[in-house]
Amino acid sequence: DAEGNTPLCAAAIQGHGVIVRYLGDKGAQIDLQGILDKNGKTPLHEAAHWGYSDIVTYLRGKGAHLELQGM
Predict the structure, then answer these.
(1) What residue spans do the ANK repeats cover (predicted)?
(2) Does residue 35 belong to any structural domain of this protein?
């Protein structure tokens, strides 16, 4: 988007769990450095920040790493 977020990051920020699951199930990269948003956060970080526990649980189940940080 205009702020540099990938579709997965944007869905996580907005709490759109159905979209997050769709993208993840279709093979979207969950937490590679290349998908960090403009603040250096992964979709997992954003979902946790905004309190979307269902998205956090899904992303953790897909192998998202808690310790990954922006460079």
Answers:
(1) 3-35, 39-71
(2) yes
Residue 69 lies in a domain: no
The pLDDT, as a whole number, for residue 32 is 60
Express each pLDDT in 15-66 by its tens digit. Answer: 999 999 999 999 988 876 546 566 778 889 889 999 999 999 999 999 988 7
Which CATH number do you get for residue 40? 1.25.40.20
Q: What is the pLDDT of residue 68?
A: 59
Residue 26 lies in a domain: yes
